[in-house]
Fold this protein.
Amino acid sequence: MENNDDKLMEKIISLCKRRGFVYPGSEIYGGLAGTWDYGPLGVALKNNIKDAWRKKFVSSRNDMYEVDAAILMNGEVWKASGHVDTFTDPLVECTKCKKRFREDTLKVKGKCDDCGGVTGEARQFNMMFSTKIGAVEDSAATVYLRPETAQGIFVNFKNIVDSFHPKLPFGIAQIGKAFRNEITPRDFIFRVREIEQMEVEYFIREDDADKSFTYWHEEIVSFAEELGLDMASFHEVIVGDGDRAHYSKRTTDFEFDFPFGQKELFGLAYRGSFDLNNHKLEYIDEEAKEKITPHVIEPSMGVDRLVLALMLSAYAEDTQGEEVRSYLKFKPSMAPVVCAVSPLLKNKPELVEKARVVYGMLKSEFGRVMWDDNGNIGKRYRRQDEIGTPWCIVIDFDTLTDDTVTIRDRDTGSQERIAKLELVDYIKERLS
């Protein structure tokens, strides 16, 4: 029997496909497991997340430097970082159907999720994708698609210090793609083979580790609230000694109640001096005339998981008569579309012309504005509700005489008339 969590995931996946948030990868050729393509609204939502992250952690600060490192890196990087030897997951194979799984994701340890057969002994499987660089296969060098964005930051540590001479503490930030050869990609866009990460490596003196860890902990919680995540579903988990990554001296995971369980959304790790030591990098304090190896605090977030968590946080239903209305109550600043503009009737040129003027005015101001004249006005409202548009603006016959418009609120369904010239200020005030 299907439970409510399964039904919720089905609704979210269906909405994402139907409304242009997320499509299955390579769908016309049967798809490719663990890959998803973002449609126009999904791209807009991702960009809103990344813009909010940049504003909070990069552009509003004077101690942060953003880089965009190459995805392909010298193979020695991954040897030095420990990924060649330790970036592994436990792989098991069913003795009956021969399917392979990550041992720690099985519903019942030792039993195949698909056929119920017995699984064999676990073996460690390295999740890095390898490829070759060079024209001739025999002499080509083996390189890896990066499994994390952090090493692109560490190998540029000296470049940032030499170019900008920052004083400790300071951070280097990056948004970028990483790749992991997941044994069993699952749960929609939660566990995939191609991910987008937003990471900061914050370089500090060792004595400041506890203070800095606490500071970044507070910043992460604040960011979650600012995005509009359901904070009742947001949890902090201190990761124990045996479960931390090989580089971590201290880790707090920030987990979210997804329909498939409480899973990691953000991570905060104290990496010590592990990475800079392994890459043989140091920092010269010109004022103190000393050479030190800074320690590192790393707040890390996945864009794809945040998209799913925001969709789940925003999804709501209410009953209006016999009809169930589903809608996404995004914070206005995070909504893929800020507002939609419609002529009441699309076969009335005078309404369409006036609506186009309003649309152009709002489009030039906010960018994320949609023109919608498809179907009757009720269907337009339902469609905009389902993609999370906070306001629908309708140009009707009264507009032609008094230059006012109807603006409808997504969450309450209430409508009010305001002057066309007041629209920009009305929306700006509510966006902020």
About this structure: The chain has two domains: 4-71+148-312, 337-431.
